Amino acid sequence: MAVSANPPIATGTISAPDLVARAEAWMAADVDDADIAELRDLIAKTTDPYVGHLAIAELADRFSGPLQFGTAGLRGAMAAGPNRMNRAVVIGAAAGLGAFLAAEIGRGAPRVVVGFDARHRSADFARDTAAVLVAAGAEVLLMPEPGPTPVLAFAVRQLSADAGVMVTASHNPAADNGYKVYLGGRAVTDAGQGAQIVPPYDARIADEIARAGAAKAVPRADSGWTVLDPEITDEYHAAVATLHDGERRAKLRIVTTSLHGVGGAAVARVLAEAGFTDVVPVEEQADPDPDFPTVAFPNPEEPGAIDMALALAQDAHGDLVIANDPDADRCAVALLDPQYGTYQGAETAFSQGWRMLHGDEVGMLLGWDAAERAARAGRGGTLACSIVSSRALAAIATHHGLEHATTLTGFKWISRTPDLVFGYEEALGYCVDPEHVRDKDGLSAAVAVAQLASRLAAEGRTLLDRLDDVARACGLHVTGQVSARFDDLDLIQSTMTALRTSPPSALAGSPVDSVRDLAEGLNGLPPTDGVVLMTADDTRVIVRPSGTEPKVKCYIEVVSAVDPDASSAALSAARVAARGRLAHVQSDIRAALGI
Asked: N vs C: which end of the chain shows fewer Cβ within 10 Å?
């Protein structure tokens, strides 16, 4: 059921003349000359005998409906038309947000902070947002330069803003851009203050966007917003500094990469301020470049994305690799694992044993560290993770006398957990400082990981030794993924339907004894699109469509009980066995889904 390399071209029920008429009407209401010219050129190609069918199919997709605004805000390819990211669509989104805030806040001007990354058109989209919101009566604070998403999320809370907008497509390909919305101040006053939107806010904003009308008719101010001083970034760094442990540390050589995003200078600064000065960046990827020339997908999770960092770490005799995605809200960690070649399974080993830790492994490390700090301070609190993340965090919370919460996928849910001490999702997202940033933050996570690695090194131990500690206390949890990217979005739903109607009877030889449809809700969670398979040996597989990419993702967890006094050799053997089972489950789930 995987997508064909050359999917058939379809225009649905809209005729070519109707498509051209819709495009002409859109151009008449557009505000951007370059977008108008691009659309006019596409219309001209519809009559070309060689490429006309391709142009018509492209028009059909662009005018298949508006780009949907939801809990992820907006995200899509940049081009002209309602089903793309462009100035007209952004102006409509800003108008809808302004109308929502005016109704929600009532008296007084809403305060909105607007940030943007270094992608193509991000600065334009941010200025348009500021212009629309000022015209709508809002007080707008514009970030002074392209910057990381965590700094914008920090600013929403720090400045008591009623809303925040971040123009970014995070780790998506270079052709994409996006629009994240945060609520705080007077708009949201509970534990989700400063977090990304969730229902029903998304639907209410979407309704206002639908009422906004043509982009050319939306009022836009020529001035009136305030460009923030760089001091706001200094305040963010001061907040990260509250995480510094001040303990005696071993020196580390840390290799970093920002994958051509905005995190390069920021991660160097937060690490230096924490005392890590032997930091070696991947120079080819250190500066922002919206074309992402050295990576096909600028996502540390994608195969090959951090190969340059791993090669540099090997050549430079590094101790640790830290990779951020382009907007620096995610953090990947890699290290030298002497056992990697013996249990790599279906993964690809890098030369001499360098490997990236799975997001769940970093979640266990930071979760254990956070739980220890909370226990030492004599206070309670909650560790939280998404439903597709490892069940190890719940065991860690129990071991340290803390509460645990399972949420739907996404930090918009994790960060709303009351009395949150630490939150994470397996997709390399970690919240180590919920007091200041109610979102995933790849910069503060980098500091937390570096400090932990350095403390352990001072004891002659490594992050791998700490993972052994967690396994002895909480059982061995080994996780992995299977995913498939689709060009035809209809195949995503047909894949999910096939799984619901004909789930596999066994995985890796263990009977599937439970199939739960997340669309019906589970353990008090709101309904969502996904299926949970549980086997008799406690292996868990969760299959769901991605919320930000055209993918179906399968999250697999194998759990093994281990002796609390197990030696490192015994744990290594247990990992080899668990990863063998994991590879078998990965093969079986691919076959079951036809991907």
From this structure: N
